[in-house]
Amino acid sequence: LQVSVDQKHLAEARSGILSILHTIMSSVTLLWSVLHQADISDKPAAASAAATSNINLGSTKKLRQQILELLGPISMNHGAHFMAAIAYVWNERKQVKTPIRNKVIPVASEEQLLLVELVRSVSAMHTETVMQTVKEVLKQPPATAKDKKHISLEVCMLQFFYAYVQRIPVSSLVDSWPSLLVLLKDSMQLGLPAPGQFLILGVLNEFILKNPNLESKKDQRELQDVTHKVVEAIGTIAGSSLEPTTWLRRNLEVKASPQIVVDGTNLEADVEDLMLTVMEASSFTPSVYSVHALTLLAEVLAHLLDMVFYSDEKEKVIPLLVNIMHYVVPYLRNHSAHNAPSYRACIQLLSSLSGYQYTRRAWKKEAFDLFMDHTFFQMDASCVSHWRAIIDHLMTHDKTTFRDLMTRVAVAQSSSLSLFTNRDAELEQRAMLLKRLAFTIYSSEVDQYQKYLPDIQERLVESLRLPQVPILHAQVFLFFRVLLLRMSPQHLTSLWPTMITELVQVFLLMEQELTADEDISRTSGPSVAGLETTYSGGNGFSTSYNSQRWLNLYLSACKFLDLALALPPESLPQFQMYRWAFIPEASDDSGLEVRRQGTHQREFKPYVVRLVKLLRKRAKKNPEEDCSIKTIPWEPGHLMLTLYVIRSMEQLLPFFNLLSQVFNSKASCRTGPVYSHNPTDSSFTGSKEGHKLESQKVFWSRARQNIEEMVEKDFLEGLIKT
């Protein structure tokens, strides 16, 4: 202080230190983390508050004080430089590999969180000061910080700030709301890169989670305004992979460009890699973040809007949601493989919005139109559960939508098949509508649509009246399976005769085809044995049984039998009266001997036994397609038939083999876990019986979940089943 110093030299010294401040901070934070590790490892948890550890540099408590004494004046006099250096070190300390993928906003590493603790420990850096300084860095990053290549300082600064907001007390956050509001408002004007805008939404979401209600109405209005602006900005990024369909029309469609899968930690690195692979980077620049924007909206939007807008203000949300849906629907119309990441994100977003009844006006028409689209079921299996939630919310809260669907099915069935129209197209339309009705029932709770069951039964019987229409009848069997899972047994009593009759009809058709093949091969030799069998129905239409549509019907019917056998007998009491017709019982291996009026008739053999015999014969003639050696596993309460498509009838042989063996060998095997069938065991006390019943409930609950997952996949079309 006594020596006079040239101000010019002082300024040079100051700017020299500020230019290497990021390096100084890197060293200081490294030491801070060493002190943290020493404190954790050296002292027991109970004494952690009182004791201080020693490392070879001295007492950790004194070293902490030294660090804070160094940083205090710097942060007071050069706040922007200080925070910019923190942002630089934050980037240095990021994890190379993140354990949690699929996060748009990356999860901070332990070393990064120590930076938050360090800043909170500096006495000069109050919450408001931090907010004002972060805003200053975003608006005008220090010149020295700008020189650092390969780092978006604004994004790193906001990543730090997001972690900081997560870890400060609610009271500090609420008290500094005016500063936070200015920071959020100003950030929207700065044209930040997309990851920076995602973090702004993240910060806003954190504030609302911690403090949903502001006391002042003016503050609440300002919160609503800033929320509206932030969400709209993210919506614009979400729509950046879309382009107008034509020059004048407002409709949008998905660009044929790559879409990056979400991984927050490597967000910018992923984008850089994509830029290098594309020669003309400019054409892809705006759209590389669209999937991330959609994913973030899916995570936070529905709950965020519900918290910010009170019950009497929900109407204000609708215009905003209509704008968001304008970007979402085009992605949901596109079922191409390159659009799959966007499709998944959009369906999650729509599913989360559908849970709030006040949002329905913004999406119900679009959702129903998508549901009725002929490509609707071409989706990833992971999306089905979201669509089930959407369809359930759509139909439950608005019975007119369900009645509209029922009317469409009825109208399609009442229109007569004309020779002058495309018969196949009309039948496909009927099958499509029936499948959507089945999916609606499947998306509901048990017995939710019980009062509509007579109408549904009428629609199913009407569909079965048309002979030789496998595309329609296959959907009827899928519908039967849905009804077994969604209606109580007592409500299905009147439908069982129809279900059994149709199952018998299909097995007779299979038997007829296999027998006809055998006759052809016997009379004409092996050269024509592989020809398709043609049958002319009563309506004069000639049908090839071996065509793919007939194979789909055979598979659908077999899956119905599979489900009826997998469910516990008490849930299908009516089926137990008919099962002897299909599978051999343990009591009589040879089948049922029938005597009528003194004449001895041919013994009845269950359909499974008859079909196994014929399929084995056919398999021997086609060794390249021999499925007789293939086996499929069997577990109580699990479906045996897990194929989604078959190319020949022989592929059903392992299933029929299993049916003829398992249910014939042990009656006890067919109804569930082994422990549930031991009535003679006198060692069971009352408490053990209770435990046994509880175990059975758990077993059937899990089994039912597995069964429903398998049935769910049967709705899907195309090759995407996993």
How widely separated are the two ends? 74 Å
Number of DSSP strand runs:
8
Which term fits the overall shape? elongated
- Low-pLDDT sequence parts: 45-51, 271-286, 524-543, 588-596, 666-685
Helix content percent band: 55-70%
Cα-atom Rg, whole angstroms?
34 Å
What integer is the average pLDDT?
Answer: 83
The main pleated sheet reads as: 2 strands, antiparallel
**How large is the count of helical segments?**
28
What keyword list fits this structure?
mainly alpha, two-stranded antiparallel sheet
Topology:
Elements lengths: L6 H13 L1 H22 L11 E2 L2 E2 H18 L1 H14 L17 H12 L5 H13 L3 H4 L6 H15 L2 H6 L1 H13 L4 H17 L6 H22 L3 E3 L7 E3 L12 H11 L12 H19 L8 H17 L6 H15 L5 H13 L11 H13 L2 H16 L8 H20 L10 H13 L4 H17 L9 H29 L9 E3 L5 E3 L3 H19 L6 H4 L18 E2 L2 E2 L6 H15 L31 H13 L20 H28 L9
Antiparallel strand pairs: 1-2, 3-4, 5-6, 7-8
Helix pairs in contact: 2-3, 2-4, 2-5, 3-4, 4-6, 4-8, 5-8, 6-8, 6-10, 8-11, 10-12, 11-12, 11-14, 12-14, 12-15, 14-16, 15-16, 15-17, 16-18, 19-20, 19-21, 20-22, 22-24, 23-24, 23-26, 26-27
